[in-house]
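STRUCTURE:
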């Protein structure tokens, strides 16, 4: 009997820990409004990106959904406008697997939008293959495309007072490594293979997100732009075209977007 009670207690304890750490949804408690602010959210047609875009729209921001698929983005925009009551939600085409597309997006944005207050680099994937420019798809989309996008929009961010760059990373970065010689001499940077190999490539790309954020923050000291990388928590979202995996909720992304500068 005592053994059964002991085992039951252990199981209950494990459940409580798992529930509070992995399942229980955290809520952003900030009441900050964003009227007059403009935000870009990449990969905003689904998952964390869509939830973040919706909440920013509810708070009054002009939200740019930077997505590859126009059809999915426009469907997301209809949902966001309906739920938020904010008509200032627009689509701009961005394919992070094409550096030319990144440049075209930045050029269009800079010509048509007078300000940028929040750049949320959220989009990510876990699939094999190569980008248009010959890089591994995971590295190219998860890191390189966002890297170029941020640099192209940096001056506009600086012009708009207290602005932010938020890179959605993952705790998977702790399993990643970066061979800088490999970066400078090879374009493929891993194109896939086994599921484990894809996971390792994903972790490498998330480490690149963290290192980029750290270096960018150092270089922007003394300006009004602050930089953040984060693992937002746990939830289920579509990171691959064929199935769902456990990853982040949007509450941490939103909290960092809204928290006052310190």
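SEQUENCE:
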């Amino acid at each position: 009997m005592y053994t059964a009670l002991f085992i039951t207690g252990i199981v209950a304890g494990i459940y409580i820990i798992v529930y509070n750490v992995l399942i229980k949804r955290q809520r952003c408690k900030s009441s900050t409004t964003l009227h007059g602010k403009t935000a870009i959210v990449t990969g905003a047609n689904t998952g964390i990106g869509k939830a973040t875009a919706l909440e920013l729209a509810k708070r009054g921001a002009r939200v740019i959904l930077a997505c590859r698929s126009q059809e999915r983005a426009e469907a997301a925009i209809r949902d966001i406008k309906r739920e938020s009551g904010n008509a200032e939600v627009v689509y701009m085409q961005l394919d992070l697997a094409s550096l030319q597309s990144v440049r075209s997006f930045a050029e269009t944005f800079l010509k048509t939008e007078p300000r940028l207050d929040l750049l949320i680099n959220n989009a990510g994937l876990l699939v094999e293959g190569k980008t248009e420019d010959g890089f591994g798809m995971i590295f190219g989309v998860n890191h390189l495309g966002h890297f170029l996008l941020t640099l192209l929009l940096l001056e506009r961010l600086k012009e708009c007072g207290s602005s932010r760059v938020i890179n959605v990373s993952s705790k998977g970065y702790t399993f990643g490594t970066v061979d800088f010689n490999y970066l400078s001499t090879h374009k493929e940077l891993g194109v896939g293979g086994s599921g484990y190999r894809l996971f390792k490539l994903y972790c490498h790309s998330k480490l690149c997100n963290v290192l980029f954020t750290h270096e960018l923050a150092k270089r922007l000291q003394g300006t009004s732009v602050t930089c953040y990388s984060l693992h937002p928590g746990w939830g289920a979202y579509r990171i691959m075209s064929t199935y769902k995996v456990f990853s982040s909720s949007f509450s941490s992304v939103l909290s960092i977007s809204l928290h006052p500068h310190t």
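REMARK: The CA atoms of residues 28 and 255 lie 6 Å apart.
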